[in-house]
Design brief:
Blueprint lengths: L9 H86 L6 E10 L2 E10 L3 E10 L2 H17 L7 E10 L2 H9 L3 E6 L2 E4 L11
Parallel strand pairs: 3-4, 4-5
Antiparallel strand pairs: 1-2, 2-3, 5-6
């Protein structure tokens, strides 16, 4: 058995160095390319982030404008409900045996750093009804009106001797909201076609404040 020894010549060694040099150059080129891609990606990410921030600002501004528009629309609808209810309330409550004769819209007062406002105030010599008008009534609206009724005579002491009752009127009156108002002793007024009706039945007992 014989062994063959490979002798490296100067040319072989030179060729190996040349090939290694080419590999180093290729590696360096790839590193530079990778670095450039990373920088470009970083710029793209920064541009994307700036774009998203701009979109977020625009959406926030649109939401703000939309909220204002919805609020203004809600106020106008509330005014519409008030104008729809006002001509009918005297007749409606007289039919319930409450001999009211005077209707005052939008009564308000500021006293001792606080204040309240009532959309419609219906009154006679002995009894009065404070009516809150909404386009779409909610249970929160009922709670707010109950709180308003509790404070009413503190802000309007000249009505202290009247039997004060409460009512809520709405263009849209969900059944659960109507039931909640009924249980709290409030009269419930709602639209029925082109008419306004009192939804309280004969078993209803109003609460007095």
């Amino acid at each position: 058995m014989s062994a063959t020894t490979t002798q490296l010549t100067y040319q072989d060694i030179l060729r190996m160095f040349q090939e290694t040099g080419l590999q180093i150059k290729e590696t360096d080129r790839l590193i530079k390319r990778t670095d450039r891609l990373i920088k470009e990606t970083g710029l793209q990410m920064q541009e994307t982030r700036q774009f998203m921030q701009e979109i977020s600002r625009e959406m926030a501004e649109r939401d703000k404008k939309l909220s204002k528009q919805i609020g203004a629309l809600g106020n106008r609808l509330g005014d519409f409900v008030q104008e729809m209810v006002r001509p009918a309330v005297v007749t409606l409550f007289q039919a319930k045996g409450i001999d009211v004769r005077e209707v005052y819209p939008n009564i308000s007062v500021r006293r001792n750093g606080g204040g309240i406002e009532v959309d419609l105030f219906v009154v006679d010599g002995l009894q009065a009804i404070a009516i809150e008008c909404k386009s779409h009534a909610t249970t929160d609206d009922i709670r707010e009106h109950l709180d308003r009724l509790r404070k009413f005579k503190d802000f309007f002491p000249r009505y202290r001797n009247l039997e004060l009752m409460g009512a809520v009127a709405a263009m849209v009156m969900p059944d659960d909201v109507a039931k909640y108002a009924y249980r709290q002793g409030l009269y419930v007024l709602a639209q029925n076609g082109e008419m306004v009706e009192v939804r309280n039945d004969d078993a209803f007992v109003p609460k007095f404040w």
